[in-house]
Amino acid sequence: MLPLHILLRHFVSDSQAVRETMRKYDSVLAGSAVAAYFHPQDIPRERTLQIYTPCGNFDRFIRALQDIEGSADKVKRGGAVPGTCQVGQVRTTRGTAEVLESAMGSPIWPLAFALSTVLQNYIGADIMVVGYPWLTF
Questions:
Q1: So where are the chain's domains?
Q2: Among 9, 44, 68, 114, which one is most buried in terms of CB atoms within 10 A?
Q3: CATH number of 4-129
Q4: Quick one: how far is CA 137 from the chain centroid?
Q5: Could you give the 3-state DSSP secondary structure of residue 98?
Q6: From CA 119, how far away is CA 16, in angstroms rounded?
């Protein structure tokens, strides 16, 4: 498996700063980027990094990510998906970061509503959780 900062480099310019921001705002990664963490040959072409934040950390996380990426672009906001309050996209130097704000105090709450077992795997700044190891490895 790749070290987390190497995986993040596929999506953002300063992987260490993004990891520190994840730690500060209690956020986790899920989705296709996490699947690629376990299977590096499957790094997605569309380069979208899904980041889940607890309720109340959305705007702060977005601002921090924009500062890291040097992005002054307006955040593209989309409709909420089950378990979230809001979803926003920030263009990064290497793709797109999709930030999803949980409807609860836990960043992983929206994963309970996922239709795919892929989302049951998530990575925090200091933790990796595999919901279905027999399907992942």
A1: 4-129
A2: 68
A3: 3.30.460.10
A4: 21
A5: strand
A6: 23
Q: Which helix (H) or strand (E) holds 28?
A: strand 28-30
Going by C-alpha positions, the residue among 130, 108, 103 that lies closest to residue 28 is: 108
Q: Which residue has the tokens 């996922």?
A: 114
Q: Which two tokens stand for residue 112?
A: 């309970």
Lookup result for tokens 């380069």: 47
Query: What CA–CA distance (Å, rounded) separates 61 from 137?
Result: 31
pLDDT band for 4, please (50, 70, 90 cuts): confident
In terms of DSSP bridges, do strands 48-53 and 95-102 run parallel, antiparallel, or are they unpaired? parallel
Could you report the per-residue pLDDT of 70-126, keeping only the tens digit for each?
876 778 787 778 899 999 999 888 889 999 999 999 999 998 888 765 557 899 999
